Amino acid sequence: MAEAPLLSVSDLHAFYGESHVLHGAALEIREGEIVTLLGRNGAGKTTTLKSIMGMMAKRRGSIRYGGVETIAMASDRIARLGIALCPEERGIFTSLNVEENLLLPPKIAPGGLSLDEIFELFPNLRERLRSPGGKLSGGEQQMLAIGRILRTGARLLMLDEPTEGLAPVIIQQIARTIEKLKAKGFTILLVEQNFRWASALADRFYVMDHGQIVEAFNSAELPANRDKLHAYLGV
Amino acid sequence: MIPLLGITTQALFAQLLVGLINGAFYALLSLGLAVIFGMLNIVNFAHGALYMMGAFFAWFLLNTLHIGYWPALLLAPLGVAIFGMIVERTMLTRLQGLDHIYGLLLTFGLALIIQGLFQNYFGSSGQPYPVPDLLKGGANLGFMYLPNYRAWTIAFSLAVCLLTWFAIEKTRLGAVLRAATENPQLTRAFGVNVPRLITLTYGFGVGLAALAGVLAAPIYQVRPLMGADLIVVVFAVVVIGGMGSIMGSIVTGFALGLIEGLTKVFYPQAANTVVFVVMALVLLVKPAGLFGRKA
């Protein structure tokens, strides 16, 4: 018998004011998986993450996490169930220093990484603890944005375009980090434009277009679907 | 006494003391306004009325329950803070995301209602509030006479201001507060109950106003319009210091009290307007205020 998915989204609709941006999106993630959400700009990937996190004021449908319906919950309660978001714009607080940023998200469950484990993944952060959040380089900001959600005990990490605008060496470092996190048992939902990079990491892929999931396949099916993918992602 | 420009040092120090006392109240009040503005994005025009409520709370405690100054110093801010938090939960929270003008109108209306109610019962005249026994008398410093209660007021408000600054800038709770001020949506998505934090912040800011009211009770009389007279100057202080800046409100509060005091000595005619002259000058040079960040 198949295990119940950790996260299951069905018939998800979301709106920015009057503008209807998600049209019945549906996806599932099982515990310990890395799932990547692909799609063009404006396809609804970030909105899907924000809806799961409870940050879209107008949303309807069903989002179940660990069997709990969260569609009507406030985002702080959803966070306390064990979901954490690393937002696309990274969301580093400029009025807080690196240490304060790192310690900001409250612990919601045991099993998070210790500060030492986080510094092992991102040694740069240890040296910048006293720096204001606004003074970090793009790569350091991304490391901080990922690092700070590892402490809390959240089990589902949602990373929105973690490689955007970063140097190749840092992109590699983030890939190694994601592999280590998977080995530690984290479940990861990734939004990524860098398809080649994501294809080496993810177990399964969903393709979004116009606010809906239009394709789903696993990494073994990837070569067979390459042409279709290019049609969805290409210009 | 050595006269300086025809002014005795005694008169000079006496006015500096008055200036420092006023400055202490400016600082406590503008600090509360800054904390509230940062977190709620609301210009709390009810602040003066809540300051007055603090003073009356202490007066009621003394005259109906025979509870004296020292317990009142804790109970009055607590009582007024609870009143403020009810106002926040039932009214201010509905204004989230709307233009500043709505918060301003609502709190201004509240101030008029509160002051009107108190005026209805007490008229415009003042009720006396005695100086606590422990702080009666004063010290002769040689160059001036320093009443103990006034020294206490200055020292205590300075301590409260600095503690507040420390709590906001240097503690874990303060970091959460700063984060929620900067990006409430993301802070909430990390699992922080931001609405509750907003309510508590409003309660704290309002409590500071009430604390200033209790401190003021033995110096000024307890009057329904005591806050209305003060608040105009306090808003000028906030504008000069920079809207929402914590250290800015403390430094500017004390500094402007002193400037006012000095003006009373050297050019008394301008004493009531000097704060607004400074405000105009600061706005010409630094539109965001002395300590303000660009909006």
Give a description of the structure.
The complex is a heterodimer of chains A (about 240) and B (about 300). Helices cover about 30% and strands about 25% of the residues of chain A. Chain A contains nine helices and ten strands. Chain A has a six-stranded mixed β-sheet with strand order 6-7-8-3-9-10, sandwiched between helices. Chain A has a four-stranded antiparallel β-sheet with strand order 2-1-4-5, covered by helices on one side. The termini of chain A are far apart. Chain B has about 300 residues and is mainly α. Chain B has one domain (about 5-130, about 150-285): ABC transporter involved in vitamin B12 uptake, BtuC. Chain B contains eleven helices and four strands; from the N terminus they run E-E-H-H-H-H-E-E-H-H-H-H-H-H-H. The interface of A and B includes residues 53, 54 and 105 of A.
Précis, in short:
The complex is a heterodimer of chains A (235) and B (295). By secondary structure, chain A is α/β, with parallel strands linked by helices.
CATH architecture of chain B: Orthogonal Bundle
Q: What is CATH's topology name of chain B?
A: ABC transporter involved in vitamin B12 uptake, BtuC
Distance between the termini of chain B: 50 Å
Largest interface: A-B, 25 and 18 residues
- How would you name the oligomeric state of the polypeptide chains in this document? heterodimer
How many strand elements of chain A?
10
